[in-house]
Design brief:
Helix content is 71%, strand content 0%. The protein is mainly α. The protein has one domain: DhaL domain (Serine Threonine Protein Phosphatase 5, Tetratricopeptide repeat), CATH 1.25.40.340. Helix 3 runs parallel beside helix 5, helix 5 crosses helix 6 and helix 8 packs antiparallel against helix 10.
């Protein structure tokens, strides 16, 4: 992944989050305050816009800049988490003009986890992204990782929520799909479609 690839990825994410905005709003309306679709579409549009205007060739610096733009645009819980993922990837990859895709996504995952303090199995974004990151490390294709992320999202049904508004539902949360994991699935779908 180089700077141009990252710009393409952010553009793909921005387009996909806009396309799936209503679906995310619908998912979130069951458990949250229905703002997830707006947050993700606005946030990734801001990140993509900042990257598109930049002349940086350092992948890390570009990711950090995009994350800062997202954090400013959507300072909500999920917006901050997604921005933290980009900013952590920025810190980890700083100084690189060519970065490993799996390293980028691992740094993104770590950034979200460090900010949100959730653990795997607690029905969050992490449960959607972590299996796909592992698949990438194993050499799976972007299309395969997208499928794994989608399966992981669907597998959040049955998990007990430990964070956010869904956690208030207690055992009833097991019947619901996690909107955060849906975002993770969309990120990997966008990654596959961007074909870096």
């Amino acid at each position: 992944m180089n700077a141009e690839n990252l710009k393409g990825l952010l553009s793909a994410w921005a387009a996909l989050m806009t396309e799936k905005k209503d679906w995310l709003i619908e998912l979130d309306s069951v458990v949250g305050d229905s703002d997830l679709g707006l947050t993700m579409s606005d946030g990734f549009a801001a990140a993509s816009g900042a990257a598109a205007e930049s002349e940086l060739t350092d992948v890390g610096k570009l990711a950090y800049q995009a994350g800062k733009a997202m954090a400013t645009a959507v300072p909500s819980t999920m917006g901050t988490l997604m921005a933290s993922g980009l900013m952590n990837a920025g810190k980890v990859l700083k100084g690189q003009e060519e970065a490993d895709d799996a390293a980028f996504f691992q740094a993104y995952l770590d950034g979200v986890q460090n900010r949100g303090k959730a653990q795997l199995g607690e029905k969050t974004f992490l449960d959607g992204l972590a299996p796909a990151v592992e698949a990438l490390k194993e050499g799976k294709t972007p299309a395969e990782t997208a499928g794994i992320a989608w399966d992981a999202f669907e597998n959040t049904k049955g998990m007990l929520a430990k964070h956010g508004r869904m956690a208030i539902r207690g055992e009833a949360s097991r019947d619901m799909l996690d909107p955060g994991a849906a975002v993770a699935a969309l990120l990997m779908k966008g990654y596959a479609e961007a074909q870096l």
